[in-house]
Amino acid sequence: MSTTPKAATTRVFQNGNSQALRIPQSLRTDKQEFFIRKIGDVFIAYPTDDPWAPTRQAIGSFPDDFMADRNQPSWDDVTTKLPTVSEASHHISSNHHSRTWQ
Q1: How far apart are CA 62 and CA 60, in angstroms?
Q2: Which of 58, 59, 90, 91 is most buried, judging by how many CB atoms fall within 10 Å of its CB?
Q3: Which domain holds residue 32?
């Protein structure tokens, strides 16, 4: 597991006509280019050379017994409760104002 802090405080500053986020020393990177996305007030940045790396790292951080006691229904139980395509089409066309199952 990584020893990198999970979060650090930083500041936004003006850099020419752009805003920039200072990367704290505890989160330094050798990467030079990142994709950045804003969701609400949250910024998410990930390296352009390997955008799936954070996902692989996150998945690898779960302990081996993660959700070992989960009460997962069998696939047969799930699929018997799903509507067929024709049932779903009929439901949507007859209830065009409501797309939820009852």
Answers
A1: 6
A2: 91
A3: 12-60
